[in-house]
């Protein structure tokens, strides 16, 4: 299902000519950014609807059905052993990075279709290159009409939504909005059925309007909003983290420990994202182009439990971060000759990030006879804040050359630079070769030089000296600047159509990294911080297959991966000095390294040729377990797990026999069908905060009405 090859259909309705022109322009836009030589897994509208939950499913749940995608806590995904180097594009335009940790800023409901491209990428893809998620948004041409939906169930899950699209003359438009309320906003810190203190309220909106001036010109505007409010789940029975001999026996200790319970903390986080994209698409003879300007604002605020955080961690910190990114992207295709297609373009971003913290700590008054610090019973307030403006940019040019009918060679150069906390540049050659020796068979091999700037919004700017001689003093004051990552990436694979409707593929890859970027959560605020390993290596392989015939479809894939790093060379103050010393001369597994990952699914539609089809679908996700601390940092792993999801959808056409009402749909979804208890994280490992457990069995029902 997820590896189906999507084709664009020319829809016909009362605005048939307008819709046909837009379908052709959609194909032209897709050709601006080809995936020659890379591995691409596509999710058509049918694929998305078939996954349990459909449009209601979070986007990471959809992407987990692609090969080599491992799940992590906070809704994060890892593609081919990388941490968060995933870029999201809306209709071909790359969105700048944001600050969301938990939230699904881009909802599945926004997508008419989407694709995930990974491997040795052509030169038009820069900055974040582990995977490119390109979302073709719904619009008035492909998704006309409206739909209202109510979805919900266990743990107070309540998810109403509304969408409407249409076309008038040269205009078409689409809007969708939803509200999410439940008590499982973040993964449970315990294996129990319900989490403590885990309420979330989220609001999402996407609007899309296009003006098709003529058959060669189109202007589009897309805007979105995501507001999310979270309670951070509590973990009962925690040991006192801020524990030293002097403090444990002090009057202050007896006073506060009797009134503070880790099951009753009240930590909260708020995440906001707003974005807008204005694009011009134009064809001029042998040239096609799309030029866009865009802006994204993202903010994150953490509110501590004023006493609880202080008692358990030695610091209660109210933290605020925001980033404002504005930029431009242009992609041009020149059909220079029958066997040469030249592409070139650029991306440029100007970013402003602001960080503020207000911390309450215990001041250190001295040391005891054993050298342990002694703290005052009084508290001290520390304010820290900084702001910085920077920019990054990329230029590329490439030629897709077909020397013979069944051979394609795509070669090009990319130049990238960053002037933010770090200042560096790189010229990156790339080449991909695709050979089709026989019908239905395709070999590909490629090499890409990558340059990945550190995430501007995640680079810490803490004034460490302010926390010296307090209960929040770091183990080391070393804080080298996070650097840009530089990689050599090799990829090769083969795909074959075995029978009509049956496809299979195999892919292998190796990444050799210098200054490998990783991210971790350090301290109570759930804000990821970036750091570098001086050297990194990632390699693995993937197998995928799918089959579809009439009302039946099935797919499956598995992947093996190994990701290791050596010598942490930036943001060292976040780490235990003993861990730093061990890692300096030894390779360790990255905390997100998962050896085996697999997913599978299938669907069958009964009565599919009637007006009341009944669809049964199921999906499976398997993981051998992310890393945890053992005898050495990241030297162990959490136990393996497998979960199954089930969906039953009954559709009725004209159920109420009312002219303006169309399809009615009833759905039943069961997440984690067999109620498996499984850990994603156990709370240990480099850059890992609290433990997180996967969602227990959850039964959800929904009703939607088209009009």
UniProtKB/TrEMBL annotation:
Belongs to the TonB-dependent receptor family. GO terms for cellular component: cell outer membrane. It comes from the Bacteria. InterPro entries: Beta-barrel_TonB, Beta-barrel_TonB_sf, TonB-dep_rcpt-like. The keyword Acyltransferase does not apply. Gene3D superfamilies: TonB-dependent receptor, beta-barrel domain. It is found in: Cell outer membrane. This is TonB-dependent receptor-like beta-barrel domain-containing protein. GO terms for molecular function: siderophore uptake transmembrane transporter activity. It comes from Novacetimonas maltaceti. The lineage of its organism: Bacteria, Pseudomonadati, Pseudomonadota, Alphaproteobacteria, Acetobacterales. Keywords: Cell outer membrane, Membrane, Receptor, Signal, TonB box, Transmembrane, Transmembrane beta strand, Transport.
């Amino acid at each position: 299902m997820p590896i189906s090859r999507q084709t664009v259909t020319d829809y016909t309705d009362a605005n048939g000519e307008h819709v046909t022109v837009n379908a052709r322009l959609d194909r032209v836009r897709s050709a601006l950014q080809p995936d020659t030589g890379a591995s691409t897994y596509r999710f058509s509208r049918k694929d998305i609807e078939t996954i349990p939950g459909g449009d209601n499913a979070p986007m990471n749940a959809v992407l987990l059905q692609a090969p080599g995608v491992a799940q992590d806590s906070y809704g994060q995904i890892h593609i081919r052993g990388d941490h968060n180097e995933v870029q999201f594009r809306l209709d071909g335009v790359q969105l700048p990075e944001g600050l969301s940790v938990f939230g699904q800023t881009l909802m599945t409901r926004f997508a008419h279709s989407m694709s995930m491209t990974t491997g040795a990428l052509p030169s038009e893809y820069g900055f974040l290159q582990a995977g490119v998620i390109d979302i073709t948004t719904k619009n008035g041409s492909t998704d006309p009409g409206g739909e209202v939906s109510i979805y919900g169930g266990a743990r107070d899950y309540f998810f109403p939504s509304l969408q409407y699209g249409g076309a008038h003359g040269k205009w078409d438009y689409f809007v969708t909005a939803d509200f999410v309320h439940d008590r499982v906003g973040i993964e449970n810190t315990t294996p129990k059925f319900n989490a403590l203190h885990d309420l979330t309220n989220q609001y999402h909106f996407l609007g899309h309007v296009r003006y098709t001036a003529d058959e060669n010109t189109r202007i589009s505007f897309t805007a979105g909003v995501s507001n999310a409010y979270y309670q951070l789940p509590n973990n009962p029975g925690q040991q006192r983290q801020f524990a030293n001999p002097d403090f444990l026996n002090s009057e202050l200790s007896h006073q506060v420990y009797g009134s503070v319970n880790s099951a009753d903390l009240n930590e909260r986080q708020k995440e906001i994202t707003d974005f807008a994209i204005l694009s011009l698409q134009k064809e001029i003879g042998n040239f096609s182009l799309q030029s866009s300007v865009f802006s994204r604002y993202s903010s994150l605020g953490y509110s501590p439990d004023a006493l609880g955080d202080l008692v358990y961690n030695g610091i209660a910190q109210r933290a605020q971060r925001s980033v404002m990114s504005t930029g431009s992207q242009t992609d041009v295709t020149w059909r220079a000759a029958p066997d040469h297609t030249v592409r070139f373009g650029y991306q440029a971003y100007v970013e402003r990030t602001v960080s503020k913290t207000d911390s309450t700590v215990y001041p250190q008054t001295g040391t005891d006879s054993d050298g342990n610090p002694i703290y005052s019973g009084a508290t001290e307030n520390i304010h820290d804040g900084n702001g910085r403006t920077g920019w990054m940019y990329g230029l590329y040019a490439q030629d897709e050359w077909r020397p013979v009918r069944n051979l394609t060679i795509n070669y090009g150069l990319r130049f990238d630079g960053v002037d933010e906390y770090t200042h560096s540049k790189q010229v990156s050659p790339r080449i991909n070769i695709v050979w089709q020796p026989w019908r239905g068979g395709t070999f590909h091999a490629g090499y890409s030089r990558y340059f990945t700037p550190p995430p501007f919004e995640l680079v810490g700017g803490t004034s460490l000296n302010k926390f010296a001689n307090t209960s929040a003093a770091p183990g080391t004051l070393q804080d080298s600047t996070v650097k840009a990552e530089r990689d050599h990436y090799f990829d090769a694979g083969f795909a074959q159509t075995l029978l009509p409707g049956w496809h299979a593929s195999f892919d292998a890859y190796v990444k050799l990294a210098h200054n490998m970027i990783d991210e971790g959560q350090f301290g109570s605020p759930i804000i990821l911080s970036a750091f570098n390993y001086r050297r990194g290596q990632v390699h693995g392989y993937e197998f995928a297959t799918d089959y579809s015939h009439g009302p039946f479809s099935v797919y499956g894939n598995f992947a093996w991966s190994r990701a290791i790093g050596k010598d942490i060379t930036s943001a060292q103050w976040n780490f235990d000095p003993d861990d730093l010393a061990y890692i300096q001369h030894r390779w360790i597994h990255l905390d997100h390294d998962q050896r085996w990952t697999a997913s599978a699914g299938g669907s069958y539609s009964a009565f599919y040729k009637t007006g009341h089809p009944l669809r049964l679908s199921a999906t499976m996700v398997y993981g051998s377990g992310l890393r945890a601390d053992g005898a050495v940092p990241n030297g162990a792993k959490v136990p393996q797990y497998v979960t199954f999801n089930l969906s039953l959808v009954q559709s009725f056409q004209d159920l109420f026999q009312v002219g303006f009402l169309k399809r009615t749909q009833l759905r039943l979804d069961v997440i984690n069908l067999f109620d498996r208890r499984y850990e994603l994280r156990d709370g240990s490992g480099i850059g890992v905060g609290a433990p997180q457990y996967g969602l227990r069995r959850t039964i959800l029902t929904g009703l939607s009405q088209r009009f």
